[in-house]
Amino acid sequence: xxxxxxxxxxxxxxxxxxxxxxxxxxxxxxxxxxxxxxxxxxxxxxxxxxxxxxxxxxxxxxxxxxxxxxxxxxxxxxxxxxxxxxxxxxxxxxxxxxxxxxxxxxxxxxxxxxxxxxxxxxxxxxxxxxxxxxxxxxxxxxxxxxxxxxxxxxxxxxxxxxxxxxxxxxxxxxxxxxxxxxxxxxxxxxxxxxxxxxxxxxxxxxxxxxxxxxxxxxxxxxxxxxxxxxxxxxxxxxxxxxxxxxxxxxxxxxxxxxxxxxxxxxxxxxxxxxxxxxxxxxxxxxxxxxxxxxxxxxxxxxxxxxxxxxxxxxxxxxxxxxxxxxxxxxxxxxxxxxxxxxxxxxxxxxxxxxx
Length: 355
Prior knowledge:
The protein has 355 residues and is of the alpha/beta class. It contains 13 helices and 12 strands.
């Protein structure tokens, strides 16, 4: 199918979220008209940052209440749109019947729009590699777009199963329709700046850094594997590139990843190096695992470091120039403090310079 026209109209589901908010901003920066879908347009806590964007004042950005659990909620919103960036999270990962119902009613709205050419489905690298099957990672260490974990494997998480289910459901529906295509973006672990305080309480990565800034850094939390990082702004750039590209095809997948990985305790330790003026009091990084736990974690980390996660396709096809990890971590820390209102633990003699 055709890509979206420059300056066209794009609907973004989950627009108040960490990724969705940056997709909205990126689309506006490139001259598109955006229909931002949020659960409750009147919820100022989650939507004020969208209304503060210049496109909202001019009318190029509009906000729409649409709870994806309600069939038909996107019917009117999608009419006249050229593309849909489907970023929104569902409420019950692992519930195949529920996931099917949500996908089906969104697809129905796409079909009835009579205008949508392309849908970008936000998935995850969790749909590319089984995070709980370490034997499978040893046998198939190269992680790229054509790789799928075994959906019949009981070790596959409900999150991974649901992401794969959505990918397949949208691609099959698009093929059956013949009027639009569905392309998948599989982001790695999103880091980078939040745009609204509520985003600091959501998602594992910005939430973990928030806890670090508050003085808690327990490597046992998500410590069994490194963070495979991507700046959230680059994830948004990949999604927009997919909407615009004439080179993609229905059912294609693209991994958003900056080719850098880092252990959780190193993230915590690096904050002070990146922001020495802040005076961050790096918490005690002593492990609270027993020897068996430490050995198990070392073994699992070794498996992950033996894998090779690739970003070849997004670099080659879209020319994505991924941000450096240090820039992403610095921007995430500063935004959690300035936008999120976090009061970090500081060394004696240091204080925040609030306006």
